Amino acid sequence: MRKLPVICVLTGLLCSCSDNSPNVFVVDIVDPLEGAAAIEMVQFPAGAFLMGSDLRSAWVIEIDPVTLRPDTTFNFERPVHAVTIDAFKIGKTEISQEQFKSVTGYNPSRFWGFYNLPVENVSWQEAVTFCNKLSDITGLEPCYDLESWECDFTKEGFRLPTEAEWEYACRAGSDLEWIASPDSSGLWLTSWYITDSTFITHSVASKEPNPAGLYDMTGNVWEWCNDFFKIYNCNSQINPAGPKLGFTRARRGGSWASSAIDCRPATRIGSHPGWGMSTTGFRIVRR
Q: In 3-state terms, what secondary structure has residue 252?
């Protein structure tokens, strides 16, 4: 089987929510291999940040089954809580249709015909199957059991990011509500969303990156994360991987069909892991 080129971009990123010191970015390229299916990954060092947001008002999500009245209100972005993360590598871009097809042999996307579009209409289960196949191709031990769908974080292969890893990478040292500002006025610089997308996906890396050099972290397509989707634990945590059980998996970052408020580092929603949507793709990580 052909070995898929994987490019690893090393950074000297300093990630903290408690200071505004400038970040240091790409300093080296390791094993640059050419090819349409090459995957670039950015190295994030271990660090800590504040996860979540208090921006949204509470949402009613539970109804008392007897009275049929609202029983409990939750805001899925609350509470803001401290998280410590070990070092990891994350894809510089969302996985493209070319990359997905080169590994799986098919392209599930609704939007196609232009170079380097993100893969979409892909379920969580298809995304983790891609991760296992990519691990096999590159000689790494796969992370997922494709019968139980459990992830073994001790394995060295590719997987989906945890929600904590995703938000840590998206924020890249910032505690602002949007990637580069406290409001959405500059969102068009980094994100394809409902205001400027013309209701289609666009080539990855066709807008400006976040401060760490990652493209399309908000907008273009929602990105699957590894975690089951539930409300946050309010305690400080180290390498949180989400609940052990659940019915839906987390998605992050907003899409071409999203409003500005959904294109923020803290935004999170859940969807059935077997469903593919034209608004949803993914990017990969490994330790």
A: strand
